[in-house]
Each structure stands twice: as structure tokens, then as C-alpha cells.
Amino acid sequence: MLVNIHEIEASGNLAKAWDVSREQVDEMVSGEKAGFRATAPAHVQARLRLVDRRVLIEASSRVQLSCPCGRCLAPASIELPVDFELTLVPLDEYQDEPRKSRDREAEKTPVAGSFETANVDEDTYQGKTIDLDPIYREQLLLALPGYPVCQEGCKGLCPVCGTNLNERDCGCDPHVPDPRWAGLKKLKLQ
Hints:
Layout: E1 2-4, H1 5-11, E2 13-20, H2 22-29, E3 37-38, E4 42-51, E5 54-68, E6 75-81, E7 84-90, H3 91-104, E8 122-125, E9 129-131, H4 132-143
Parallel strand pairs: 7-8
Antiparallel strand pairs: 1-9, 2-4, 3-5, 4-5, 5-6, 5-7
């Protein structure tokens, strides 16, 4: 979704809505080991405002995904909210500010590897058009759960035989002794 800066200037408060197809969502979230797949297209609603060359974006979306459960490996369905607020700063303005602060504090702290938390909700744009698709992709990736589960009470797999404990109890001893501690059983206490 491309937005022209002049559109935002003309309206003052520009509302945009667009659909992201299942295939596009799959491309955004697919990785070699991710396992996430879109089950429906996503609808994105965004509001853009221009304030002193800075573009303020407020957007919301819901994405339907399927993936393997992190406990039992059964298919899990996830409705993922992707809501974010972001400020886009012109690239030339953004490059000037850090350079000034670096010059003042050059002797105090090293620049390499530094990260300022004050700018965490900022990104840059260049020219008169803004492409919202890469911004949405980044926010979608940040919203992905690290450990998705099929249900909150998922019991997972048996560590001994691998049976899905949600389907049946396998009868294995749930307490498997750690082999690193096996030598302590030979000790006799007086």
C-alpha cells in the first residue's frame, strides 16, 4: 500500500484500509522453521497524520494463522492482533539528530552497538511516498507468538514414549530421573 505525502497534507487525517491476501501473509511470516501459515486474508485499517514532516501511523489488523502447537505438535489456530503506532521521520532529519548527539558525547560513550530507547517507535521514510507493506510486515513479525499452543491446558507429549497426553494417558512414570544424578544413588549416608 503506497501513500503519497500530499494525500496526507490535503486531508490532514488520512484513513486507509487494504486487504493482504493469504499468499502475501504467508510470504511475510514464512521462514524455514517458523511453521506459521495464513488461513484467511488480513484486513488492515490505518490512520495517518502529518505533523511537522513526521507521519504518525495508527494501524490495526487481525490475522488468522495456523501452526504446530509448541507442546503437542497438533495443529493450532491463532487469531493474532497486529495493532501498532509508529512515527515516520524524514531520513534527512533522522540522520542529523543522531550525528549532533554523537558529536557532543563522542568522548563519553562508544557509538557502535548503541540503541536509544527513546526512538524505538520511530522509523524513517524518504521521498514523497510511503510504502506501508514493509512496515506492516515488521509489525506482524513482532506480534508473532514465540511459543504458540493449541489450548491453554495442553498437556503436551510424554517425555518417555512421546504419546500425546491430551488424547490418552500412557502410564509412563512422569518422573524420569536425570542420568547426571545417577551416581548419587550409590552414595550411602550414615
